[in-house]
Amino acid sequence: MAIDVVFETHALSEDNERGFATGWLPGRLSERGRANAADMGRRRRDDGIAAVFSSDLRRAAETAEIALGDTSIPILYDWRLRECDFGEHNGAPSTQVGRDRLNYCDTPYPGGESHTQAIARVASVFPDLATRWAGRRIMLIGHMATYRALEQATTGRTVHDLVAATFEWQPEGWEYHLS
């Protein structure tokens, strides 16, 4: 049975504002990010969401808590929803990580993982969702790797195409149907 997925990226972090690629570092929401997370909560609290699944990295967990922590919607944290592990490049300037990203589609970042590995890790969550949430609407709060895994699962696009594409943030999030 299928699952309807609402995907939202974590809210704006201090690293986002300063131009750093946080990767597997925890990160922290900026003041504007905390306001974004509160807006997300107002937008999503009566949206029919049965459960929220969030990356366990601080910036995503903080987004989930601010947005929906005061509701009866359960928030579940899963390390598999983390961003790509940029290894030695965690915390590097976003321009550097962005410029070199296609070099790491299949080859792991030094001390980290490849985009293919990150997308597969995130996608390993999807079958588990069906064990309890089939036929329901859930929310995922994550990162670029989460977005790319959802895109690949629903469109079949290649990792290279997904990593090469320019990411366009959507303030209302994304909707997916996983079968």
Question: What does this molecule look like?
Answer:
- By secondary structure, the chain is an alpha/beta fold.
- The protein has one domain: Rossmann fold.
- Helices cover 41% and strands 16% of the residues.
- The protein contains 8 helices and 7 strands, in the order E-H-E-H-E-H-E-E-H-H-H-E-H-H-E.
- It has helices at 14-18, 31-44, 58-68, 94-100, 115-123, 125-133, 144-155, 159-164; strands at 3-9, 20-21, 51-54, 75-77, 92-93, 137-142, 174-178.
- It has a 5-stranded mixed sheet, with helices on both faces. Strands 2-5 form a two-stranded antiparallel sheet.
- Strand 3 (51-54), helix 3 (58-68) and strand 4 (75-77) form a beta-alpha-beta unit.
- The longest helix has 14 residues, at 31-44.
- The radius of gyration is 15 Å and the shape is globular.
- The termini are close together.
- InterPro entries: His_Pase_superF_clade-1 (IPR013078), His_PPase_superfam (IPR029033), Phosphogly_mut1 (IPR005952).
- This is phosphoglycerate mutase (2,3-diphosphoglycerate-dependent).
- Pfam families: His_Phos_1.
- Its EC number is 5.4.2.11.
- Belongs to the phosphoglycerate mutase family. BPG-dependent PGAM subfamily.
